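Attaching the record inline, Q. Sequence:
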Amino acid sequence: MGISSLLYQLYERRLVRDLDPARIPRHIGVILDGNRRWAKALGSPAAHGHKKGADKVGELLTWSSEVGVEVVTLWMLSTDNLSRSAREIEDLLEIICTAVEDIADDGRWRLRLAGALTLLPESCAARLLAAEERNRAAVAEGMVVNVAIGYGGRHEITDAVRAFLRDQDEAGKTLAEVADALDVEDITEHLYTAGLPDPDLVIRTSGEQRLGGFLLWQSVHSEYYFCETYWPDFRRVDFLRALRDFGQRERRMGR
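Structure, as predicted:
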């Protein structure tokens, strides 16, 4: 083992010791950004970056589970991403479907899909839904993994309002009655993440310091951590630094 590897391991262990178990986030959202730029820096096609990024997902989930995180939400494909070239989208969707199937069949995670699957090709949506159903039937008891595919924050809120209005219509309510009774919880209960805690921490890789519409409703009280590293190069030490930073913050929750 080289001296640099030894020092890295010692630093990683120190970070673990510094973590306060009482201040580990229950729910972490991760914007997996930088795959294409990582590939471009190597002179490789975008698909190579997407594949390396997908390979990193299992590591992140393992790290999260080890420290006691209960929910991880991964933003794998935005609604804006769907406007990319047909070839890139085809490659990306194949990589995503395979990654989701791996999560579903791992046996450690409880898979949930989050996003507008109707925006995806039927064959891709069918694979994703089949993976989710297969995972549900296995009755896994581990960490919940939300995979956001065809996801946009505005789209999610619109879908939530639409679903709520349909429920109220089926209940025979008038529009005036619905408007008078509508509250925040009515929207929350119809989001893609319904029934789950809001994210405590949102991590974005690649150096971009914006949310881009990720979990717009749910992240109102979230802490944000922006990491310079491209997603394929994201290391356990980067993850631990994010947790340490989170644990040192005073969360005011809007107060």
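Strands lie at 27-31, 71-78, 110-114, 144-151, 201-204, 223-226. The CA atoms of residues 164 and 190 lie 7 Å apart.

More tomorrow.
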